[in-house]
């Protein structure tokens, strides 16, 4: 069975539900329901990427949290019922958070690595009943290690263990350092395993896609941004603190479709070398820049992805980078019309 049996084109991340949130109990049940999956399908998406976190699914002792597993089971059943394929993505571990350097003990602690493998044995035992053409696994989101070989060793170990249990399950594999395209040359995957899809994430240029986002190191910059063109005029940095100036200065250059394509082509070339499909598992723009700039960026991004036959999943559904209003459920057509144009 070749990975092309898990055929996807355009999807959305159903995030901040079983991942990256403190909501639990009735609030968690209400936040995402079957209606969300119906709407996702009706809008024209064909799959969902479903992030899950260790902290919601296992106690610190490794005991399974049954309520979370039941919600995951419901989500997959709702998806399949409404003809949506699903990627289950283990997004954040207690021993590894892509945005928290202090948390990344995974690379130094063999016990944490063994626990990570154990999580996938648990997940496989729960999810192997679902057909291979409807469900895929993404063992870990956005690995961040100083040494790319740390990630290569761990992901190949994970793949080997999953293969013992499910030889034909499609596995989504990203590269080191936030799955950025430029790190793809360092990525190693098992030879002759055609049930693998390679995955990159792209938010270039960050001062646009994360303008005023609270979790960035340039969030205090309140000046204007520009896309396409010179992302920030250096004269607009006057009056900012040095940390902000340094953070923004890393990105001061012209950005346009050509720049986006040049970055993505690094991943395209590596995928061709390995003869494996390529997938953009995350991209999106925080809804803070002027809508015209957001639209220009989305048009360029979708054009590059389509021209290179790259399936994709937008980050995200209705949270920080939404395509629907979380309170009303109303679609944000200014963005969806570009994402879902035929």
Question: What does this entry look like structurally?
Answer:
This protein has twelve helices and ten strands. The chain is an alpha/beta fold and 342 residues long. Strand 3, helix 5 and strand 4 form a beta-alpha-beta unit. It is globular. It starts with 9 loop residues before the first strand and ends with a helix.
Which secondary structure elements does this structure contain, and how are they paired or packed?
Layout: E1 10-13, H1 25-31, H2 34-43, E2 47-53, H3 54-57, H4 66-81, E3 85-92, H5 110-127, E4 135-138, H6 148-165, E5 170-174, H7 176-179, E6 196-201, H8 206-209, E7 229-230, H9 242-249, E8 254-255, H10 257-274, E9 278-282, H11 291-307, E10 311-314, H12 333-339
Parallel strand pairs: 1-2, 1-10, 2-3, 3-4, 4-5, 5-6, 6-9, 9-10
Antiparallel strand pairs: 7-8
Helix pairs in contact: 5-6, 10-11, 11-12
Short summary:
Helices cover about 40% and strands about 15% of the residues.
Q: Give the termini distance in whole angstroms.
A: 29 Å
Percentage of residues in strands = 5-15%
Main beta sheet:
8 strands, parallel, barrel
Uncertain runs with pLDDT below 50, 5 residues or more? Answer: none
List keywords for this structure.
single chain, 342 residues, alpha/beta, eight-stranded parallel barrel, two-stranded antiparallel sheet, 12 helices, 10 strands
């Amino acid at each position: 069975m070749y990975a092309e049996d898990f055929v996807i084109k355009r999807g959305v991340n159903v995030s901040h539900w079983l991942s990256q949130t403190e909501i639990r109990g009735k609030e968690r049940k209400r936040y995402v329901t079957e209606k969300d999956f119906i709407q996702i399908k009706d809008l024209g998406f064909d799959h969902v990427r479903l992030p899950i976190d260790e902290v919601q699914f296992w106690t610190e002792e490794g005991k399974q949290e049954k309520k979370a597993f039941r919600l995951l089971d419901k989500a997959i059943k709702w998806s399949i019922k409404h003809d949506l394929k699903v990627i289950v993505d283990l997004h954040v571990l207690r021993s590894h958070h892509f945005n928290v350097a202090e948390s990344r003990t995974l690379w130094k602690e063999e016990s944490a690595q063994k626990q990570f493998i154990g999580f996938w044995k648990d997940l496989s035992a729960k999810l192997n009943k679902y057909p291979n053409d409807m469900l895929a696994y993404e063992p870990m989101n956005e690995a961040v290690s100083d040494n790319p070989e740390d990630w290569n060793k761990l992901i190949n170990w994970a793949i080997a263990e999953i293969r013992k249990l499910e030889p034909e399950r499609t596995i989504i594999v990203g590269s080191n350092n936030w799955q950025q395209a430029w790190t793809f040359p360092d990525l190693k995957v098992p030879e002759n395993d055609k049930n693998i899809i390679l995955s990159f994430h792209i938010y270039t240029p960050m001062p646009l896609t994360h303008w005023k986002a609270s979790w960035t190191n340039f969030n205090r910059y309140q000046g204007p941004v520009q896309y396409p063109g010179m992302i920030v005029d250096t004269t607009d940095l006057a009056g900012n603190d040095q940390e902000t100036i340094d953070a923004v200065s890393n990105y001061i250059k012209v950005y346009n479709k050509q720049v986006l394509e040049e970055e993505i082509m690094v991943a395209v070339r590596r995928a061709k070398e390995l003869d494996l499909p390529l997938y953009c598992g995350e991209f999106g723009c925080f809804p803070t820049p002027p809508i015209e700039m957001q639209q220009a960026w989305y048009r360029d991004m979708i054009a590059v992805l389509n021209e290179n036959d790259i399936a994709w999943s937008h980050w995200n559904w209705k949270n920080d980078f939404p395509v629907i209003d979380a309170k009303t459920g109303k679609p944000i057509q200014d963005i969806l019309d570009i994402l879902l144009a035929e």
